[in-house]
Protein backbone atom coordinates (compact mmCIF):
# COMPACT_ATOMS: atom_id res chain seq x y z
CA UNK A 1 0.00 0.00 0.00
CA UNK A 2 2.91 2.32 0.60
CA UNK A 3 5.30 4.22 -1.54
CA UNK A 4 8.87 3.06 -1.61
CA UNK A 5 11.13 3.73 1.30
CA UNK A 6 12.99 6.23 -0.93
CA UNK A 7 10.32 8.79 -0.04
CA UNK A 8 10.83 8.23 3.68
CA UNK A 9 13.48 10.67 4.80
CA UNK A 10 14.39 12.40 8.02
CA UNK A 11 13.00 15.66 6.62
CA UNK A 12 9.70 14.06 5.71
CA UNK A 13 9.40 12.51 9.17
CA UNK A 14 10.23 15.82 10.85
CA UNK A 15 7.64 17.65 8.75
CA UNK A 16 4.98 15.07 9.56
CA UNK A 17 5.69 15.32 13.29
CA UNK A 18 5.54 19.13 13.11
CA UNK A 19 2.16 19.14 11.35
CA UNK A 20 0.80 16.71 13.94
CA UNK A 21 2.11 18.71 16.91
CA UNK A 22 1.10 22.12 15.50
CA UNK A 23 -2.55 21.12 15.21
CA UNK A 24 -2.59 19.47 18.64
CA UNK A 25 -1.13 22.64 20.20
CA UNK A 26 -4.25 24.49 19.13
CA UNK A 27 -6.61 22.11 20.88
CA UNK A 28 -5.50 23.03 24.41
CA UNK A 29 -4.93 26.77 24.04
CA UNK A 30 -8.24 27.67 25.77
CA UNK A 31 -7.47 25.73 28.98
CA UNK A 32 -5.42 28.42 30.81
CA UNK A 33 -7.83 31.08 29.53
CA UNK A 34 -11.03 29.68 31.01
CA UNK A 35 -10.83 31.78 34.21
CA UNK A 36 -10.54 34.92 32.07
CA UNK A 37 -13.37 33.79 29.79
CA UNK A 38 -15.53 33.22 32.87
CA UNK A 39 -15.00 36.81 34.02
CA UNK A 40 -15.41 38.33 30.54
CA UNK A 41 -18.56 36.45 29.56
CA UNK A 42 -19.96 35.91 33.05
CA UNK A 43 -20.32 32.13 32.95
CA UNK A 44 -19.30 29.64 35.62
CA UNK A 45 -17.42 26.37 35.84
CA UNK A 46 -20.42 24.43 34.51
CA UNK A 47 -20.17 26.26 31.18
CA UNK A 48 -16.46 25.46 31.11
CA UNK A 49 -17.37 21.79 31.56
CA UNK A 50 -19.84 22.06 28.66
CA UNK A 51 -17.12 23.62 26.48
CA UNK A 52 -14.85 20.67 27.23
CA UNK A 53 -17.68 18.21 26.52
CA UNK A 54 -18.33 19.86 23.15
CA UNK A 55 -14.65 19.60 22.28
CA UNK A 56 -14.54 15.93 23.29
CA UNK A 57 -17.66 15.18 21.27
CA UNK A 58 -16.04 16.83 18.25
CA UNK A 59 -12.94 14.66 18.67
CA UNK A 60 -14.90 11.42 18.92
CA UNK A 61 -17.25 12.25 16.03
CA UNK A 62 -14.26 13.19 13.89
CA UNK A 63 -12.48 9.96 14.80
CA UNK A 64 -15.54 7.95 13.82
CA UNK A 65 -16.00 9.77 10.53
CA UNK A 66 -12.40 10.35 9.48
CA UNK A 67 -10.64 7.37 11.04
CA UNK A 68 -10.34 5.55 7.69
CA UNK A 69 -10.51 8.61 5.47
CA UNK A 70 -6.78 8.60 4.79
CA UNK A 71 -7.11 5.16 3.19
CA UNK A 72 -9.44 6.78 0.66
CA UNK A 73 -7.87 10.20 0.09
CA UNK A 74 -4.28 9.62 1.16
CA UNK A 75 -2.43 10.80 4.25
CA UNK A 76 -1.50 14.32 3.10
CA UNK A 77 -5.00 15.47 2.05
CA UNK A 78 -6.43 14.39 5.42
CA UNK A 79 -3.61 16.12 7.30
CA UNK A 80 -4.44 19.25 5.28
CA UNK A 81 -8.11 18.96 6.29
CA UNK A 82 -7.11 18.76 9.95
CA UNK A 83 -4.84 21.80 9.63
CA UNK A 84 -7.62 23.76 7.91
CA UNK A 85 -10.07 22.93 10.70
CA UNK A 86 -7.48 24.06 13.25
CA UNK A 87 -7.02 27.36 11.40
CA UNK A 88 -10.78 27.96 11.41
CA UNK A 89 -10.84 27.32 15.16
CA UNK A 90 -7.98 29.78 15.71
CA UNK A 91 -9.78 32.45 13.67
CA UNK A 92 -13.02 31.97 15.61
CA UNK A 93 -11.26 32.30 18.96
CA UNK A 94 -9.30 35.33 17.72
CA UNK A 95 -12.50 37.20 16.80
CA UNK A 96 -14.41 35.66 19.72
CA UNK A 97 -16.60 38.55 20.78
CA UNK A 98 -19.47 36.39 22.00
CA UNK A 99 -19.88 33.23 24.04
CA UNK A 100 -21.38 31.45 21.03
CA UNK A 101 -18.16 31.79 19.04
CA UNK A 102 -16.30 29.99 21.82
CA UNK A 103 -18.61 27.01 21.45
CA UNK A 104 -18.26 26.94 17.66
CA UNK A 105 -14.50 27.35 17.96
CA UNK A 106 -14.35 24.39 20.34
CA UNK A 107 -16.29 22.26 17.88
CA UNK A 108 -13.80 22.98 15.10
CA UNK A 109 -10.94 22.41 17.53
CA UNK A 110 -12.33 18.99 18.44
CA UNK A 111 -12.83 18.07 14.79
CA UNK A 112 -9.23 19.02 13.97
CA UNK A 113 -7.93 16.92 16.86
CA UNK A 114 -9.94 13.90 15.77
CA UNK A 115 -8.72 14.12 12.18
CA UNK A 116 -5.06 14.46 13.20
CA UNK A 117 -5.08 12.00 16.11
CA UNK A 118 -5.55 8.89 14.00
CA UNK A 119 -4.19 9.99 10.64
CA UNK A 120 -1.25 11.85 12.18
CA UNK A 121 -0.19 8.78 14.12
CA UNK A 122 -0.28 6.52 11.09
CA UNK A 123 1.38 9.18 8.91
CA UNK A 124 4.32 9.36 11.33
CA UNK A 125 4.62 5.57 11.41
CA UNK A 126 4.56 5.44 7.60
CA UNK A 127 6.97 8.36 7.12
CA UNK A 128 9.68 6.95 9.40
CA UNK A 129 12.79 5.67 7.59
CA UNK A 130 13.77 2.10 8.42
CA UNK A 131 16.41 3.29 10.89
CA UNK A 132 13.75 5.06 12.98
CA UNK A 133 10.91 2.56 12.72
CA UNK A 134 11.41 1.33 16.27
CA UNK A 135 10.86 4.75 17.83
CA UNK A 136 8.25 5.98 15.34
CA UNK A 137 5.38 5.08 17.66
CA UNK A 138 6.97 7.02 20.50
CA UNK A 139 7.57 10.01 18.22
CA UNK A 140 3.94 9.95 17.10
CA UNK A 141 2.46 9.84 20.58
CA UNK A 142 5.01 12.40 21.80
CA UNK A 143 3.92 14.78 19.04
CA UNK A 144 0.31 14.23 20.06
CA UNK A 145 0.64 14.50 23.84
CA UNK A 146 3.53 16.97 23.71
CA UNK A 147 1.48 19.21 21.45
CA UNK A 148 -1.32 19.22 24.01
CA UNK A 149 1.11 20.24 26.74
CA UNK A 150 2.88 22.93 24.77
CA UNK A 151 -0.50 24.36 23.80
CA UNK A 152 -1.30 25.04 27.45
CA UNK A 153 2.14 26.44 28.21
CA UNK A 154 2.27 28.68 25.12
CA UNK A 155 -1.22 29.94 25.79
CA UNK A 156 -0.42 30.76 29.42
CA UNK A 157 2.81 32.54 28.51
CA UNK A 158 1.30 34.63 25.70
CA UNK A 159 -1.80 35.50 27.73
CA UNK A 160 0.18 36.32 30.86
CA UNK A 161 3.13 38.17 29.38
CA UNK A 162 1.54 40.17 26.54
CA UNK A 163 -1.39 42.61 26.45
CA UNK A 164 -3.28 40.29 24.09
CA UNK A 165 -4.65 38.01 26.79
CA UNK A 166 -7.40 36.23 24.88
CA UNK A 167 -6.45 36.73 21.24
CA UNK A 168 -2.67 36.46 21.28
CA UNK A 169 -2.47 32.67 21.77
CA UNK A 170 -4.70 32.04 18.76
CA UNK A 171 -2.75 34.40 16.52
CA UNK A 172 0.32 32.32 17.38
CA UNK A 173 -1.64 29.16 16.60
CA UNK A 174 -2.74 30.53 13.24
CA UNK A 175 0.89 31.17 12.33
CA UNK A 176 1.92 27.67 13.41
CA UNK A 177 -0.82 26.11 11.28
CA UNK A 178 0.10 28.17 8.21
CA UNK A 179 3.66 26.92 8.57
CA UNK A 180 2.24 23.39 8.90
CA UNK A 181 0.50 23.87 5.57
CA UNK A 182 3.85 24.65 3.99
CA UNK A 183 5.46 21.68 5.77
CA UNK A 184 2.93 19.38 4.10
CA UNK A 185 4.80 19.95 0.85
CA UNK A 186 7.57 17.66 2.09
CA UNK A 187 5.38 15.15 3.97
CA UNK A 188 5.58 11.86 2.05
CA UNK A 189 2.35 10.43 0.68
CA UNK A 190 2.48 6.78 1.69
CA UNK A 191 -0.87 5.57 0.35
CA UNK A 192 -0.49 4.79 -3.36
CA UNK A 193 -3.46 5.70 -5.56
CA UNK A 194 -3.82 2.08 -6.61
CA UNK A 195 -4.25 1.03 -2.98
CA UNK A 196 -6.90 3.58 -2.02
CA UNK A 197 -10.34 2.26 -1.15
CA UNK A 198 -13.80 3.84 -1.43
CA UNK A 199 -14.78 5.70 1.71
CA UNK A 200 -17.35 3.96 3.90
CA UNK A 201 -18.70 5.25 7.18
CA UNK A 202 -18.63 2.61 9.89
CA UNK A 203 -17.64 2.18 13.50
CA UNK A 204 -13.94 1.30 13.72
CA UNK A 205 -13.27 -2.25 14.82
CA UNK A 206 -10.13 -3.85 16.15
CA UNK A 207 -8.52 -6.28 13.68
CA UNK A 208 -8.65 -9.86 14.94
CA UNK A 209 -4.86 -10.11 15.13
CA UNK A 210 -4.67 -7.23 17.63
CA UNK A 211 -7.72 -7.87 19.82
CA UNK A 212 -5.87 -9.67 22.61
CA UNK A 213 -3.26 -6.99 23.13
CA UNK A 214 -5.82 -4.23 22.51
CA UNK A 215 -7.68 -5.19 25.66
CA UNK A 216 -4.68 -5.04 27.97
CA UNK A 217 -3.26 -1.93 26.28
CA UNK A 218 -6.57 -0.15 26.76
CA UNK A 219 -6.30 -0.48 30.55
CA UNK A 220 -3.21 1.71 30.59
CA UNK A 221 -4.67 4.10 28.03
CA UNK A 222 -7.83 4.55 30.09
CA UNK A 223 -5.88 5.16 33.29
CA UNK A 224 -3.42 7.55 31.67
CA UNK A 225 -5.89 9.62 29.69
CA UNK A 226 -8.33 9.77 32.59
CA UNK A 227 -5.51 11.33 34.62
CA UNK A 228 -4.94 13.84 31.80
CA UNK A 229 -8.62 14.71 31.91
CA UNK A 230 -8.56 14.96 35.68
CA UNK A 231 -5.65 17.39 35.63
CA UNK A 232 -7.18 19.45 32.83
CA UNK A 233 -10.31 19.83 34.94
CA UNK A 234 -8.90 20.04 38.48
CA UNK A 235 -5.62 21.95 38.06
CA UNK A 236 -7.03 25.28 36.75
CA UNK A 237 -9.71 25.32 39.48
CA UNK A 238 -7.15 24.31 42.12
CA UNK A 239 -4.77 27.11 41.17
CA UNK A 240 -7.53 29.71 41.01
CA UNK A 241 -9.98 28.80 43.76
CA UNK A 242 -7.75 27.06 46.33
CA UNK A 243 -4.42 28.83 45.87
CA UNK A 244 -5.98 32.12 44.74
CA UNK A 245 -3.40 32.45 41.96
CA UNK A 246 -5.02 34.11 38.97
CA UNK A 247 -2.13 33.93 36.54
CA UNK A 248 -2.55 32.36 33.11
CA UNK A 249 1.18 31.58 33.15
CA UNK A 250 0.88 29.50 36.33
CA UNK A 251 -2.30 27.77 35.14
CA UNK A 252 -0.69 26.93 31.80
CA UNK A 253 2.44 25.52 33.42
CA UNK A 254 0.56 23.58 36.09
CA UNK A 255 -1.61 21.84 33.50
CA UNK A 256 0.82 21.63 30.59
CA UNK A 257 3.75 20.12 32.46
CA UNK A 258 1.95 16.76 32.70
CA UNK A 259 1.67 16.47 28.93
CA UNK A 260 5.24 17.64 28.33
CA UNK A 261 6.53 15.09 30.87
CA UNK A 262 4.55 12.45 28.99
CA UNK A 263 6.21 13.34 25.69
CA UNK A 264 9.70 13.44 27.24
CA UNK A 265 9.24 10.04 28.90
CA UNK A 266 8.07 8.47 25.65
CA UNK A 267 11.21 9.58 23.84
CA UNK A 268 13.69 9.09 26.70
CA UNK A 269 12.46 5.59 27.61
CA UNK A 270 11.21 4.54 24.21
CA UNK A 271 13.91 1.89 23.82
CA UNK A 272 13.28 -0.15 26.98
CA UNK A 273 11.43 -3.43 26.70
CA UNK A 274 7.64 -3.30 26.54
CA UNK A 275 7.22 -5.15 29.85
CA UNK A 276 9.64 -2.79 31.60
CA UNK A 277 8.02 0.26 30.03
CA UNK A 278 4.57 -0.76 31.24
CA UNK A 279 6.00 -1.60 34.68
CA UNK A 280 7.65 1.81 35.04
CA UNK A 281 4.60 3.57 33.65
CA UNK A 282 2.08 1.94 35.96
CA UNK A 283 4.25 2.50 39.04
CA UNK A 284 4.88 6.16 38.10
CA UNK A 285 1.19 6.82 37.51
CA UNK A 286 0.31 5.21 40.85
CA UNK A 287 2.88 7.36 42.67
CA UNK A 288 1.62 10.44 40.85
CA UNK A 289 -1.91 9.82 42.07
CA UNK A 290 -0.68 9.34 45.63
CA UNK A 291 1.10 12.69 45.47
CA UNK A 292 -2.03 14.34 44.04
CA UNK A 293 -4.08 12.98 46.94
CA UNK A 294 -1.65 14.82 49.24
CA UNK A 295 -1.40 18.00 47.17
CA UNK A 296 -5.13 18.77 47.23
CA UNK A 297 -5.80 18.81 51.01
CA UNK A 298 -2.41 20.45 51.68
CA UNK A 299 -3.08 23.12 49.02
CA UNK A 300 0.46 22.67 47.71
CA UNK A 301 1.33 23.92 44.23
CA UNK A 302 4.74 22.25 44.46
CA UNK A 303 3.19 18.84 45.14
CA UNK A 304 0.65 19.40 42.35
CA UNK A 305 3.48 19.99 39.87
CA UNK A 306 5.42 16.97 41.15
CA UNK A 307 2.29 14.89 40.73
CA UNK A 308 1.84 16.22 37.19
CA UNK A 309 5.42 15.41 36.17
CA UNK A 310 5.41 11.88 37.62
CA UNK A 311 1.89 11.12 36.39
CA UNK A 312 2.71 12.47 32.94
CA UNK A 313 5.74 10.21 32.64
CA UNK A 314 3.62 7.21 33.65
CA UNK A 315 0.83 8.12 31.25
CA UNK A 316 3.24 8.52 28.39
CA UNK A 317 4.86 5.13 28.88
CA UNK A 318 1.59 3.26 29.30
CA UNK A 319 0.11 4.88 26.23
CA UNK A 320 3.08 4.62 23.88
CA UNK A 321 3.76 0.97 24.67
CA UNK A 322 0.09 0.18 24.26
CA UNK A 323 0.04 1.88 20.86
CA UNK A 324 3.27 0.18 19.84
CA UNK A 325 1.91 -3.24 20.80
CA UNK A 326 -1.32 -2.67 18.87
CA UNK A 327 0.34 -1.39 15.69
CA UNK A 328 2.90 -4.18 15.92
CA UNK A 329 0.12 -6.76 15.98
CA UNK A 330 -1.85 -5.14 13.16
CA UNK A 331 -1.30 -5.53 9.40
CA UNK A 332 -0.05 -2.30 7.85
CA UNK A 333 -3.20 -1.69 5.80
CA UNK A 334 -5.34 -1.90 8.97
CA UNK A 335 -3.29 0.40 11.18
CA UNK A 336 -5.56 3.41 10.70
CA UNK A 337 -8.54 1.36 11.86
CA UNK A 338 -6.71 -0.02 14.92
CA UNK A 339 -5.27 3.33 16.01
CA UNK A 340 -8.65 5.00 15.55
CA UNK A 341 -10.27 2.49 17.89
CA UNK A 342 -7.48 2.97 20.43
CA UNK A 343 -7.80 6.75 20.37
CA UNK A 344 -11.58 6.57 20.72
CA UNK A 345 -11.05 4.62 23.94
CA UNK A 346 -8.44 7.18 25.05
CA UNK A 347 -10.62 10.21 24.33
CA UNK A 348 -13.61 8.68 26.05
CA UNK A 349 -11.29 8.19 29.02
CA UNK A 350 -10.10 11.79 28.99
CA UNK A 351 -13.59 13.19 28.44
CA UNK A 352 -15.84 11.37 30.87
CA UNK A 353 -13.71 11.95 34.02
CA UNK A 354 -13.31 15.64 33.15
CA UNK A 355 -17.04 16.10 32.75
CA UNK A 356 -17.90 14.07 35.85
CA UNK A 357 -15.23 15.87 37.88
CA UNK A 358 -16.63 19.20 36.75
CA UNK A 359 -20.09 18.21 37.96
CA UNK A 360 -18.92 16.76 41.28
CA UNK A 361 -16.63 19.71 42.01
CA UNK A 362 -19.65 22.01 42.10
CA UNK A 363 -21.53 19.72 44.50
CA UNK A 364 -19.04 18.06 46.88
CA UNK A 365 -16.01 20.28 46.34
CA UNK A 366 -12.74 20.11 44.44
CA UNK A 367 -10.58 18.35 47.05
CA UNK A 368 -12.90 15.37 47.74
CA UNK A 369 -13.53 14.94 44.02
CA UNK A 370 -9.81 14.94 43.21
CA UNK A 371 -8.96 12.48 45.99
CA UNK A 372 -11.68 10.00 44.95
CA UNK A 373 -10.64 10.15 41.30
CA UNK A 374 -6.98 9.71 42.25
CA UNK A 375 -7.94 6.57 44.18
CA UNK A 376 -9.85 5.10 41.23
CA UNK A 377 -6.95 5.80 38.88
CA UNK A 378 -4.53 4.16 41.34
CA UNK A 379 -6.60 0.97 41.19
CA UNK A 380 -6.40 0.97 37.39
CA UNK A 381 -2.63 1.37 37.68
CA UNK A 382 -2.49 -1.80 39.78
CA UNK A 383 -4.44 -3.64 37.07
CA UNK A 384 -2.09 -2.33 34.36
CA UNK A 385 0.88 -3.45 36.46
CA UNK A 386 -0.60 -6.92 36.88
CA UNK A 387 -1.13 -7.37 33.12
CA UNK A 388 2.31 -6.18 32.03
CA UNK A 389 3.38 -9.73 31.13
CA UNK A 390 0.94 -9.68 28.19
CA UNK A 391 3.28 -7.21 26.44
CA UNK A 392 6.20 -9.65 26.43
CA UNK A 393 5.59 -10.78 22.87
CA UNK A 394 4.77 -7.34 21.50
CA UNK A 395 6.25 -3.82 21.28
Automatic annotation (TrEMBL):
UniProtKB keywords: Cell membrane, Membrane, Transmembrane, Transmembrane helix, Transport
Keyword Cell membrane: yes
UniProt cross-references to InterPro entries, sorted A to Z: MFS (IPR011701), MFS_dom (IPR020846), MFS_trans_sf (IPR036259), MFS_Transporters (IPR050171)
Chain ranges of the Major facilitator superfamily (MFS) profile domain: 7-392
Major localization class: membrane
Coiled-coil regions listed in the entry: none
Compartments in which it is found: Cell membrane
Topology of the protein relative to the lipid bilayer: Multi-pass membrane protein
Annotated TM spans: 12-29, 49-66, 78-97, 103-125, 137-158, 170-187, 208-233, 245-265, 277-295, 301-321, 341-360, 366-386
UniProt keyword Nucleotide-binding present: no
SUPFAM superfamilies: MFS general substrate transporter
Name of this chain's protein: MFS transporter
Protein's organism: Frondihabitans cladoniiphilus
Amino acid sequence: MSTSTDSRTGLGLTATIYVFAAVMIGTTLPTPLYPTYESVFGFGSQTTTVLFAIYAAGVIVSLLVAGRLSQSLGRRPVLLIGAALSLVSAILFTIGTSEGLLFVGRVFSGLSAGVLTSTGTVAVLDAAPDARKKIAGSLATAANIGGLGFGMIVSGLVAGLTPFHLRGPFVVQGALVVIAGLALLVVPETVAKADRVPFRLHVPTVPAAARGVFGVASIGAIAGFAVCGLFSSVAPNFVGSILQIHSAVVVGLATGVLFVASAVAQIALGSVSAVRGVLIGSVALFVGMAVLALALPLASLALLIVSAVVSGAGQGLLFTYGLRAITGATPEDQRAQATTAYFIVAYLAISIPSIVAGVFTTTVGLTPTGIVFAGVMAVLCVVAFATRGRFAVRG
